[in-house]
Write a structure and sequence with these properties.
The chain is built from 5 helices and no strands. By secondary structure, the protein is mostly helical. About 85% of the residues lie in helices and about 0% in strands.
């Protein structure tokens, strides 16, 4: 039950931050959706290096709860319902390609920072 509450709280905070970001950038079409996905993937990359330093509860809060609700892969449906099929396909390709690249960048940046702090 504790894990459920931790994920619930993290998810609520992640969804609220996503809502604030999208509200501030509403006039930019589907780009806010891509931005949240890229940022979420970057954070997962950073956390991937630091998983050893997180407790189980912190891991659940940050990854499953916060980042899970912050990223907007459900945005595929929103973009498809608001845009043409070609824009939805562009969103899909950009979101996945840039999300993967962002994860790798977050991973490498985090490794670099930890190595610099250890020496």
């Amino acid at each position: 039950m504790t894990s459920f509450l931790i994920i619930f709280i993290g998810g609520g905070l992640g969804a609220c931050l996503r809502h604030l970001l999208h509200g501030a950038t509403l006039s930019y079409g589907f780009y806010p959706h891509i931005l949240t996905n890229i940022l979420g993937c970057f954070l997962l990359g950073v956390l991937f290096v630091n998983f050893d330093f997180l407790s189980k509860d912190q891991f659940l809060f940050l990854t499953v709860g916060f980042i899970g609700a912050f990223t907007t892969y459900s945005g595929y449906i929103a973009v498809l319902s608001e845009s043409s099929l070609d824009k939805a396909l562009l969103y899909f390709l950009l979101s996945n390609a840039l999300g993967f690249l962002s994860f790798i960048v977050g991973l490498e940046v985090s490794k670099f920072v930890f190595e610099a702090l250890r020496s």
